[in-house]
Task: inverse folding
């Protein structure tokens, strides 16, 4: 691994069809792709199971998924990830993580922290606002818009949820900070004074948790013209001393490493000259500043 770039790290991704309904391939195939992509550290962060049937994705419902199945697959994921991390340790540092789900709005904290005790790190992500998914179908996003009373109000509620999540869970990584862009019109103003105030409050919570921000390359794949987060948020976070680390948000081998070099250029272009990666040292997870 001495020839691998220390900055080439992904902390958000590694989803596989083996353990995620909307991903493809096996976890082994995803990790072999990470070896071939010459990552120095590759964190795997499969979705934690949701605790109530009303939060099953429509595609999961169509395929007959149940809560019991989600929990069984998550337990199998935990075991397989541990096995593969040990098997591949001479070729790749694989970190054992998961991506939190913050639903229901009341009561997710205890469940996610219970999961955290069995893994090395947590990615804290917000996919729901007032218990409506904002990065699923356009119909769901429109329902969230209607419930909030418009895009600005929805974005404010979203960043409020990010702040609450960071305070409640204190995750090692905060995922795709401005995911609210996913279904919003490309020309929408998502940096109004009210939104900026709410985003600043979220960033303050991220900083207080000493969390790393996910520089998530999926924004390019989703047609957003850039990664998450947008430049104005990069500047604000950097000014607050918050570190970034790349996340390919891979949902199969085809996504592994996608956009990471471009994401490095993106950070450099916006005045960020280092990343903050997680790594394993003497059996413990540490945070390291790595120059780009």
Result:
């Amino acid at each position: 691994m001495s020839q691998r770039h220390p900055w080439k790290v992904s902390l958000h991704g590694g989803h596989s069809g083996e353990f995620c309904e909307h991903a493809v391939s096996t976890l082994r195939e995803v990790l072999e792709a990470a070896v071939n992509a010459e990552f120095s550290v590759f964190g795997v962060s499969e979705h934690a199971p949701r605790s109530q049937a009303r939060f099953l994705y429509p595609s999961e419902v169509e395929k007959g998924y149940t809560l019991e199945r989600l929990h069984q697959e998550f337990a199998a994921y935990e075991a397989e990830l541990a096995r593969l991390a040990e098997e591949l340790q001479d070729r790749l540092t694989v970190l054992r993580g998961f991506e939190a789900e913050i639903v229901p709005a009341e009561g997710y904290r205890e469940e996610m922290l219970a999961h955290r005790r069995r893994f090395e790190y947590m990615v804290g992500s917000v996919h729901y606002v007032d218990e409506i998914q904002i990065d699923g179908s356009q119909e769901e996003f429109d329902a969230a818009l209607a419930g909030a009373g418009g895009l600005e109000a929805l974005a404010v509620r979203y960043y409020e949820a990010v702040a609450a999540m960071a305070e409640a869970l204190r995750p090692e990584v905060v995922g795709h900070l401005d995911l609210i862009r996913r279904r919003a019109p490309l020309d929408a103003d998502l940096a109004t004074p009210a939104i900026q105030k709410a985003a600043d409050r979220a960033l303050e919570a991220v900083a207080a948790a000493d969390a790393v921000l996910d520089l998530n390359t999926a924004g390019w794949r989703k047609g957003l013209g850039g990664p998450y987060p947008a430049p104005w948020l990069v500047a604000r976070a950097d000014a607050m001393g918050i570190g970034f680390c790349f996340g390919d948000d891979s949902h199969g081998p085809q996504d592994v490493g996608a956009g990471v070099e471009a994401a490095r250029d993106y950070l450099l272009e916006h005045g960020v000259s280092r990343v903050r990666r997680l790594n394993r040292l003497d059996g413990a997870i540490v945070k390291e500043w790595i120059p780009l």
Q: What stands out?
A: The first strand starts at residue 9 and ends at 10.
